[in-house]
Amino acid sequence: MSCLDGARLGLGGAALGNLFEPVSDAQVRALLDRAWDDGCRSFDTAPHYGHGLSERRMGDALRGHPREAFSFSSKVGRLLTPDRHAPANQHGYVQTLPFVQHWDFSGSGIRRSIEDSLQRLGLSCLDTVFIHDMDEHTQGEQAHAVFKQVLDEALPMLAQLKTEGVLRAVGLGVNDHAIVSQVLAHADLDALLLAGRYTLLDTSALPVLMPQLQQRGVALALGGVFNSGILATRIDAARTLTFNYAPAQQVWIDKALRLQVVCDRHSVPIEAAALQFALHHPATALVLLGARSVPEWDHARQAAKVQIAADFWAELRHEALLPQEAPTP
After folding, report:
1. pLDDT in tens, 216-250
2. Residues near 66 by Cβ (< 8 Å), separated by ≥ 6?
3. pTM, whole model, 2 decimals?
């Protein structure tokens, strides 16, 4: 079985803000044109991505299409302030726009963030707004205060903006699945963007969060389904392997190499297995691809079309490389 529906593949904009290396405006335009021609109609970005650069580029590339024909999301939680002394390279992004960022989950900060994003995008509304990186790993000692402010200020302001027609859906954009369950214990969400926690390599969101999303009717967009590179192409211990934007720990390398052995035995590209696994869970509405070029997009689209036999998935379960309860094609 393969997953052929291009509409279930969205384009994430982190790389288009010059993540780790520069991308040209022309390269971004060519990529969005190719994705559109392939049927992609869902696009995501954030002020964090290149300090507004990704928003500007994606807005420029999409503005010629009818607004009702595509879905666009961005994020809140960081505000950008103009600064002529701003470093060119910040937070993993290179050649950024001349802004510095700071956290702000207040009601007024949320409203300003969305208004600023709409200016950069050249749009009058957003389909979905995700509260960005409120998890403990990112926020550290401020995590409890951020959690309270999200419940007391950010979510009420987003609900108000929803009634004003500025946005249509409210969600979280996080790498940590536990924080989602904590928020759902106190509030409703329309959507979730979860990166790197439901993948062929890391199924930590499977037992608790995925059923919860189905029960609560939360639309799930999965990001980071290649875990930032380790599953993006054939795994070779001789190359540098990254897992969730950091050098991969040995436990993940060992598991990835075991996955590669099974993939080789069945002549299945590991990136095809990774993408189709993420797409197949019934909670998954969309998988966001972090492509930075037309060849990367085409590579992922081909991975979605690869035919994978049922005995491949059965062997992954037999080898304890996938949980028995994990849905597979």
Report:
1. 999 999 999 999 889 999 998 778 898 888 899 99
2. none
3. 0.95
